[in-house]
Structure formats: C-alpha cells, structure tokens
Design brief:
Layout (H helix, E strand, L loop, with lengths): L1 H23 L12 H7 L27 E4 L5 E4 L6 E2 L2 E2 H14 L8 E3 L10 E4 L4 E9 L2 E7 L8 E8 H5 L4 E4 L8 E6 L4 E3 L4 E8 L6 E7 L7 E7 L3 E4 L5 E10 L5 E11 L5 H9 L1 H19 L1
Parallel strand pairs: 12-18
Antiparallel strand pairs: 1-2, 3-4, 5-10, 6-7, 6-10, 7-8, 8-9, 11-13, 13-16, 14-15, 14-17, 17-18
Length: about 325
C-alpha cells in the first residue's frame, strides 16, 4: 500500500512539474481553434517581432517592438548558423519562421505543427492556410491568398535576421517554385474575406467616356457590403463614390486625363474588411472636345449659325 501511495505521489509530482514547465514555456495542452485570418493578424500584428526580448520566459503568444539580437554566421564550411537565439520565441520545437508558422497552425487548426499534413511539390490549387517551405529549405510561410500567378503570405524572419512579423508579402509562383522544398496542404481553408473587383470596360479610356467597376466578396461570413473610392491624378486622398452598400456596381465619369486608382472595399457580416485597388488611365480623346466646345462658344461660330439661319429663312420667303 505504501509503495502504491509513493508511486501515486511521484506521478502527481512529475505531472505538476511538467505542468509548470509547460506553463513557463508557453506550451498549452489544447487549442481553441480559430480558422480566421483576421484573428491571426490581430494576434500577431504586422511589423512587430515574434520574440521575448527583455524577458527570459518564452512567449509564443506574444510579440515585442524590439528586433531579435541573433545573427547569421558563416561557418566557413559551406553552411551558415545562428548565434544568439536565446530571446527568440519557440513553438512546436522550433523558433523563427518555422516556430511562428507552427503557432499559426496551432491557433487555426489545433495542431502543434504542419508536418503531418499532406505534402506536394507544386504550387497548383494553393489555398489560404497552406504552408510553403522554400528558399532552398531556409524559409517557411503560411499562404493567405492566391490571385493568378501571385501568392500572398504571412511570415516571420523573412529577412533571416530579426524575427519581424510580416503579412501581405507577395511573390510570384515562378519565383517561389525556383527554390521550392515542399507545400504542406492545410486540412481546410482559412476564413478570409477577400475583396475583388473587375472592370466592366477597358482599363484605359478617353476623356469624356465613363468607366464601370463591379465588386464581389469571397470567404469570411457572407452578406457583403461594398465601398468604392477613387483617387484622381492630382489628388493625395481617395474620394468616396459609394459608402458600404449592397450595390456591387458603379459607373464613374472622370474629369481629367491621367492615372487614377479605384479602391474597392468589401466588408463581411462580421465587420471584417478587405480592399483591392484597380488602376485605370484616362487619355486624350481622339476628338478634341475642349477645342470643339471652345469653337462652338466662339462669336465666329455663333455668327456663322446666325448667317445660315438668316439665309434659310430668306430662301423660304422667296
């Protein structure tokens, strides 16, 4: 009986010690999954640093305003290695880019890392949530959107020097594929409200013509509203053409020649907002409307009209 009691006591002590260690190093036993990109971006803000500089305690749920002090050193033997990793955050047994993506995966999917996911070696059918390992096996990122040949992702330590968090980093599929190690396929897509829009006419028009745009949303929680704003050639700010409304279409008449930008914002039913910009150009018209208007308003033109009218009336009388 005494042996059983001592064994039980030993078990309780070891469990308590492991619990303290897990708490100290920021390791949790279960994840409250939240497969929403905006939640991840709020949890780990853009341009902060995923580290615990100023503290000895690992904090994988946190960040600081201070870059990591570690440095990448050339060994002289054909490989590089890091010195000074003590203040990097750690999660899932890794630091820097892999540890950060592990933490995102844990938050979104409840898994400590992505290594159990299906692997593939091409960039077809990518979706938000997938993990890419590239740069000749030196960098890991999480995909946040894919638009044609362009991949947008979130990362940590993208410059291999300071553990800075960056969202909305973009590279072409061609550029990533050149140094691709593998793609790890997420079990489901991150919930991402995407703003999208298209021209319903050409992206280059002549002065005097109208240009039309259609907006649409994807992902997030449906029942979207749309906002359109335009920045003219000499403007420093956008002018709102339509505030958030269910209407998805605008017809715009630009006044001046030059390069314009229309900004389309999509808000989902949770209030999450994403934007997309579309440039367009207004060129000189084939017909010089300004010159024509000037001529029509000129005394010479009015005199000519009067003379023709007088002649017509005179001929009718005769």
């Amino acid at each position: 009986m005494r042996k059983i009691f001592l064994k039980s006591l030993k078990y309780i002590f070891i469990t308590a010690m492991l619990s303290c260690i897990c708490s100290l190093y920021g390791i949790t036993a279960s994840a409250k999954t939240n497969c929403d990109l905006n939640h991840l971006m709020e949890m780990f803000p853009d341009e902060k640093y995923w580290n615990h500089v100023g503290s000895y305690i690992n904090n994988p749920d946190g960040w600081t305003d201070t870059p990591c002090p570690h440095v990448l050193v050339d060994s002289g033997l054909g490989y590089d290695y890091y010195v000074g990793l003590g203040e990097c955050n750690e999660f899932g047994g890794d630091v820097q880019c892999i540890g950060f993506v592990n933490r995102l995966v844990y938050e979104a999917y409840g898994m400590e890392n992505y290594l159990s996911w299906e692997q593939k070696y091409d960039l077809e059918n990518l979706k938000p949530g997938d993990v890419i390992r590239f740069l000749y096996d030196m960098h890991t990122v999480m995909v946040t959107s894919v638009d044609g040949n362009m991949i947008t992702y979130g990362e940590c330590n993208g410059n291999l020097s300071d553990c800075q968090i960056k969202w909305n980093v973009q590279k072409s599929k061609d550029e990533i594929y050149e140094s691709l190690t593998a793609v790890y396929v997420a079990p489901s897509m991150l919930s991402v409200p995407l703003a999208n829009g298209s021209y319903t006419s050409d992206d280059t028009i002549e002065r005097g013509e109208n240009i039309s745009f259609t907006a649409y949303g994807e992902g997030g929680s449906e029942k979207y509203t749309y906002k359109f704003a335009v920045k003219a050639p000499n403007d420093t700010k956008f002018t709102v053409i339509q505030n958030f409304d269910e209407n998805t279409f605008i017809n715009y008449h630009p006044d001046a020649m030059g390069d314009y930008i229309v900004k389309i914002s999509v808000k989902d039913s949770n209030g999450e907002t994403k934007t997309k910009t579309l440039p367009f150009t207004v060129t000189k018209p084939t017909i010089d409307y300004d010159g024509l208007i000037y001529f029509v308003k000129s005394p010479l033109f009015l005199l000519a009209i009067f003379a023709l009218s007088f002649r017509a009336v005179f001929n009718m009388i005769l």
